[in-house]
Amino acid sequence: MAHVSIRPTATLRAAATRALHTQTLPSHASAPIALSLIRAQPSQYIIASLAGRKYLLTPRDLLTVPRLKDVKVGDVLKLSDIHEIGSREYTLRGSPTIPPEQVRVEATVVEHTKGRMEVIFKKKRRKGYERTVYHKQTYTRLRIGPIDIVENPSS
């Protein structure tokens, strides 16, 4: 049986350093510390609920959701149901959501559009019943703005 030695490489050291960041913090102090750590990272993401579904979003994303009837092109929507915020190294999950005072994200309505033509063919065998229905689903497209992490939520 041959002797195999394992030497720490750069990737193993990076994994070990990354593992240090994933340690849990005390619950009473974890949110402000985690938010400051996430704010220091170069890029962030959020998981937010919009139109009844959860989406993973980053700044400048173009999001297509089912038609929002009460908005016009150019309207700015404030995303309030944010479930998670994170970066490459850190993540903060809400229970169930993160308070809107801590994270601000806006979405601008870019357009109202329709999807591709759907063909629905209905038939009852041996009855002579055949119908063809054509349908286009309506959608609203949103541009996600910057993710603003508030430094001191009490102010």
Topology:
Elements: H1 10-21, H2 27-40, E1 44-50, E2 53-57, E3 62-66, E4 76-78, E5 82-87, E6 91-98, E7 103-124, E8 129-149
Antiparallel strand pairs: 1-2, 1-5, 3-8, 4-7, 5-6, 7-8
List key phrases describing it.
155 residues, alpha+beta, disordered N terminus, four-stranded antiparallel sheet
Please tell me the total number of domains.
1
Q: Give the overall average pLDDT.
A: 83
Separation of termini? 66 Å
Based on secondary structure, the structural category is alpha+beta
Report the order of strands and helices: HHEEEEEEEE
Strand order of the largest sheet: 2-1-5-6
What's the tally of helices? 2
Oligomer: single chain
As residue ranges, the low-confidence spans are 1-12, 22-28
Strand portion, in percent? over 45%
Largest sheet: 4 strands, antiparallel
Q: Would you report the number of β strands?
A: 8
Q: Estimate the global geometry from the Cα principal axes.
A: elongated
Our Rg estimate from Cα atoms comes to 23 Å
Proportion of helical residues: 10-25%
GO molecular function, one term: RNA binding
Family: Belongs to the bacterial ribosomal protein bL21 family.
Protein name: Large ribosomal subunit protein bL21m
Pfam families: Ribosomal_L21p
